[in-house]
Write a structure and sequence with these properties.
Mean pLDDT: 85
Order of helices and strands: HEEEEE
Largest sheet: 5 strands, mixed, barrel
Number of domains: 1
Strand order of the largest sheet: 1-2-3-5-4
CATH class: Mainly Beta
Low-confidence stretches: 10-20
CATH superfamily: Copper binding periplasmic protein CusF
Shape: globular
Number of strands: 5
CATH topology: OB fold (Dihydrolipoamide Acetyltransferase, E2P)
CATH architecture: Beta Barrel
Number of helices: 1
Strand content: 35-45%
Length: about 100
């Protein structure tokens, strides 16, 4: 049983490493710590819900995509998988849009 579990964990680590290598250089290196799926977003209110947790979107937020260093906040839509960085409190300062195939 331990051997099967070890093989499964090794496979997951290798898959996550391979997925991370496919990301652009301006994405964070190594493991992405804050990753989730957008449940709800209100750009007018500056509010976003990711995996049932509510955050504020910074006025100076930077949204990164796989194709461009900086894209419009309008790209933040429900169902999109993102990595994100928070500043003071629960204020998100950076988003990195992730491919739908990204595994957490």
């Amino acid at each position: 049983m331990k051997k099967i579990l070890s093989v499964l964990i090794l496979g997951w680590v290798l898959a996550a490493t391979a997925a991370a290598r496919d990301l652009p250089d301006y994405y964070p290196q190594g493991e992405l710590r804050r990753v989730g799926s957008i449940d709800f977003v209100s750009l007018d209110e500056g509010r976003i819900v990711i995996d049932d947790a509510t955050f504020t979107i910074s006025d100076d937020v930077v949204v990164h995509s796989l194709q461009s260093y900086s894209v419009s906040k309008a790209r933040l839509r429900p169902g999109t998988v993102v990595a994100f960085k928070t500043g003071a409190g629960r204020v998100i300062t950076n988003f990195w849009l992730l491919p739908s195939s990204y595994r957490r």
